[in-house]
Amino acid sequence: ERVLQLLEFDGSVEEDYIRIVRCFEATRQRCCRLEQDGQRVRDQLARVEAERAALEVKLKHARNQVEVEMNKRYRAEAELEKQERKLQLVFETLMREPWGSGEQCSVLSALAGRRFAASLAPGRRSSAVDESCQSLLSHSDISYDRTEDDV
């Protein structure tokens, strides 16, 4: 009887070991799958971070280009106003000249029509650029948030 008890005891212990080994194997396989998933996610994260960095560089270049174009526009507008003032002075000088013929005065008067006179009005922006659609590059609509440039 004692031998039979030992044999039964050994048989149940062996089954317990087999169950434990199966649980360890299932856990090992799960850990392997999780490691593979983790590596896949790390690779995906690296790709997304590289793409984000590239987009930040593009954004920085675009902001710089907008700034350059706005400076060009300001300089062009200042030059336009300067030329308009000169043209206005020339026009006024020619209109005041006593030696001018009647024909010259009539030509100047024709040039001084509504449109020409309006374009010579001081402080008026050029009509060469149609700003009725509110350009996407309008300096008043652009917000410069430089805090993200340091990221």
Description:
The protein has helices at residues 2-96, 102-111, 114-120. The chain has a domain at 1-69. It is rod-shaped. The longest helix has 95 residues, at 2-96. It is mainly alpha-helical. The chain has 3 helices and no strands. The protein starts with a helix and ends in a 31-residue tail after the last helix.
Q: In sequence order, what are the helices and strands, one letter per element? A: HHH
Output the number of helix runs: 3
Estimated helix fraction: over 70%
- Rg, Cα atoms, Å: 41 Å
Terminus-to-terminus distance: 79 Å
Task: Classify the secondary structure makeup into a structural class.
Answer: mainly alpha
Q: Which residues sit in consecutive blocks of at least 5 with pLDDT less than 50?
A: 126-138
Molecular shape: rod-shaped
Question: How would you characterize the largest beta sheet?
Answer: none
Strand content: under 5%
Average pLDDT number: 78
* Total beta strands: 0
List the helices and strands and how they pair.
Blueprint lengths: L1 H95 L5 H10 L2 H7 L31
Question: Features of this protein?
Answer:
single chain, 151 residues, mainly alpha, GTPase activator activity
Q: How do you describe this structure in short?
A:
It comes from Rynchops niger (Black skimmer). The chain is mostly helical and 151 residues long.
